[in-house]
Design brief:
Layout lengths: L8 H13 L6 E5 L6 E3 H15 L9 H10 L4 H4 L10 H16 L4 H16 L3 H20 L12 H7 L2 H5 L1 H16 L6
Antiparallel strand pairs: 1-2
Helix pairs in contact: 2-3, 2-7, 3-7, 5-6, 6-7, 7-10
């Protein structure tokens, strides 16, 4: 972009990164917005779960830094710019997706000045590995949000993918690792979804 020519290196790298991550607005997810039923994009998802992380931090199983949780959630899906979004129940090979996301993280965070890129890359890895209280809670939020969206949209993607309760509990069981309180709410959601016929027994 011509308007970035001649900028100081550090500022130019930061702006290049910010231009690049705008692509996240074009990555469409299988989850729908709670109020208008439109398919959400990954930028909307990231913004929403970051706010959830801030608002609900008191319900984590372990003490967490809500601001750090929000930071993780803001960056956790930047890799979808290259790797795309693959629905949880869509049957995509997890190993293939993981390889694409690892390569995407190297490229995208590599756009930043070294120390900033390394810091965000490490934060992304921490989230992926769920290796801290902050990461476990962030993952719980990331898994919990689509449950809310599906309940607001007549079951959302559950009927489409013929989801059974045991399958759902297995795939989002990480919620309980981060928050017993949210896992208890998730069970209420499963009960309600099953009663409506959106989740199979």
């Amino acid at each position: 972009m011509d308007w970035m020519n001649g900028l100081p290196t550090r500022l130019g790298q930061q702006l290049q990164f910010l231009v690049e991550i705008d692509h996240l607005k074009s990555v469409v997810r299988a989850t729908r917005n709670l109020h208008n039923g439109a398919l959400e994009n990954t930028a909307e998802h990231s913004w929403y779960v970051a706010l959830m992380g801030l608002m609900l931090a008191e319900h984590a199983n372990e003490p967490v830094d809500g601001a750090r949780v929000a930071q993780m959630l803001l960056i956790h899906d930047l890799v979808e710019i290259d790797a795309g979004d693959h629905p949880l129940h869509g049957g995509h090979p997890p190993a293939d997706q993981a390889d694409k996301e690892i390569a995407a993280a190297v490229r995208i965070f590599g756009l930043l000045p070294d120390e900033q890129g390394q810091t965000l890359h490490a934060l992304w890895h921490e989230f992926e590995a769920a290796e801290s209280a902050d990461a476990r809670f962030a993952k719980a939020i990331d898994r919990f949000q689509p449950l809310m969206a599906n309940m607001a949209n007549g079951g959302g993607s559950w009927p489409q993918y013929d989801v059974h309760r045991a399958q759902l509990e297995h795939r989002v069981g990480g919620i309980g690792q981060g928050s017993d309180a949210l896992w208890a709410v998730a069970q209420r959601i499963f009960d309600a979804g099953q009663a409506q016929g959106w989740i199979k027994a």
